[in-house]
Write a structure and sequence with these properties.
Helix 1 packs antiparallel against helix 2 (45-70), helix 2 (45-70) packs antiparallel against helix 3 (73-91) and helix 5 (144-169) runs antiparallel to helix 6 (175-198). The chain has a single domain, classed as Rhopdopsin 7-helix transmembrane proteins. The chain starts with a helix and ends with a helix. It is built from 6 helices and no strands. It has helices at 2-25, 45-70, 73-91, 114-140, 144-169, 175-198. By secondary structure, it is mainly alpha-helical. This is DUF998 domain-containing protein. Keywords: Membrane, Transmembrane, Transmembrane helix. It comes from Nonomuraea aridisoli.
Length: 199
């Protein structure tokens, strides 16, 4: 079970490394504006799609080990939900819009595909379940430091999700940056939590 926790932690951090490097080196992609999900589109789109799916599967598997390692079924379930819907985010990519991939009109289409709607739903669950897991951790973990860190992560994750949602709806030029900050806060916490659980 320990190996599941270690690989879950490493997968959380590797997810960040991959989308940061890919985003900064992708032709026509603007990391400050475009969301991470847009990296699943275009010629190199398979890389980010795989990033979603592999990371999600590994984290879902690691959630099984959380039950015994941290003695909390609720925490394990919330982490498992996060992992499963991360997989769904890769299986159902968003529609092309807002200038990416290159050649796409620089606006949001009036109508989106069912696939895009499924992606949006999966993303909402992802960004909702991780702060929920942090809230649960703040209650079930015995160490004061972890309680405070988890509570702050939950607050940051919720605030970041709301801020990104508003920025996305208004096509704010820094929407992608807001999303990235939210992801880093949550995914780093999850990786550290799984590493801590591995003991």
């Amino acid at each position: 079970m320990t190996i599941l926790l270690w690989t879950g932690a490493l997968s959380s951090w590797l997810f960040i490394v991959i989308f940061l490097i890919d985003g900064w080196t992708r032709p026509g992609y603007r990391p400050v504006r475009h969301p991470v999900s847009a990296l699943a589109l275009g010629p190199r789109g398979l890389l980010q799609a795989a990033n979603f799916v592999v990371c999600g599967l590994v984290i879902t598997a690691s959630a099984v080990a959380v039950v015994s390692a941290l003695d909390s079924v609720v925490l394990a379930v919330t982490i498992g939900v996060f992992g499963l819907f991360l997989v769904a985010s890769g299986v159902f990519p968003m529609d092309a819009m807002r200038g990416y991939p290159p050649g796409t009109p620089d606006e949001t289409p009036a109508k989106v595909s069912v696939r895009h709607k499924l992606h949006d739903f999966a993303g909402a669950v992802v960004f909702g379940s991780l702060p929920t897991a942090a809230i649960v951790a703040a209650f079930v973990l015995p160490e004061a430091g972890w309680k405070w860190y988890s509570a702050l992560t939950a607050a940051g994750g919720i605030a970041g999700f709301i801020a990104f949602g508003q920025a996305w709806e208004s096509d704010h030029p820094r929407a992608g940056l807001m999303q990235r900050a939210t992801i880093v806060v949550g995914w780093v916490w999850l990786g550290l939590l799984l590493w801590h659980a591995a003991g």
